[in-house]
Amino acid sequence: MLTLADGVQLHVSVSGPKDAPVTVVLSHGWCQDRRTWRRQIAALDEMGHKAPRVIAYDTRGHGRSSATHLRAATLAQLGDDMAEVIRRYAPDGPVVLAGHSMGGMTVMEYAHRHPEEFADRVKGLLLVSTTAEGHTHTRYGLPDQLATLLRAGETLGAGLLARSGAWRPHRVVLPALRPALRWLLFGDECADEAMTLTMRGLGRAPLRSIGGFRESIGTQLRLDTLAGLSGIPAAVLVGSRDRLTPPACAESIAGALPGAELTVVPGAGHMLPLERPDEVSAALVTLVRRAARRAKRDRRPTVGGQSRCREAA
């Protein structure tokens, strides 16, 4: 457990070689937990002697971490929390950050609020099913008028839930919500394991977390921050049937982030790490390998002030 300055405790899992040349930090989505990344963690472990150190943690107010204060249910706080996780568990060496949905927004907030640390440490960036423009492009797969009406109702409901404390009474009604969540969060295919993990993550989230983070998520604007992240290898993934962060979100991120590689996964929805784990794992492994090659090059001795290795990062 990592105890933060305001007393919130984060549940952090660390795996992989202690002397790994690269550390991967995984940040999950809204109302989910670190188990979202279980298939990617397994893929990284399968890299054998080239495997990275892996840090996966439950965001405040999610999973096995303790509840958050309502005033701290913001993306700005999550960016600061990520900074603390990295300082505590990866104090040196290159880092690859991966964020899904709200986790991707957390990565952007970390870059915005801690630009010097970010520039010094981060050597790879994976943004999955996320947005840098709040709810600008979110239509839930509905016509504009219906989407506007639904958003108004969602915003009102979120405000009520945010004031409901750390209760989890929604666990009782989750089975009834399963068909709607299946439609909203997944695309053409949905394995039972993926749906079960998604439902369990939602069942662990207190009402305060479900409602409290909504305002911050809906209003964040970080395209300008992304535009300043030059020289960092980056991959942006989105499902073609994502109803929460549709392809337009990923396209704007890739357009702002210098050199980012955009992949639109046909037929997939919002839960890409669970829904299409192989595609997400492949992108993450590629970034880790690139970061490791760069770290190896940077460690090599120089001759006359010039590196003897000209291998591309």
TrEMBL record:
Return any one Pfam family short name: Abhydrolase_6
Which GO terms fall under molecular function for this chain's record?
catalytic activity
Instruction: Tell me where on the tree of life, at the top rank, the source sits.
Output: Bacteria
What InterPro entries does this protein map onto? AB_hydrolase_1 (IPR000073), AB_hydrolase_fold (IPR029058), AB_hydrolase_sf (IPR050266), Epox_hydrolase-like (IPR000639)
* Protein name as catalogued: Pimeloyl-ACP methyl ester carboxylesterase
Domain spans labelled AB hydrolase-1: 24-283
Query: What PANTHER family would the database entry show?
Result: MONOACYLGLYCEROL LIPASE
Its taxonomic path starts at: Bacteria, Bacillati, Actinomycetota, Actinomycetes, Micromonosporales
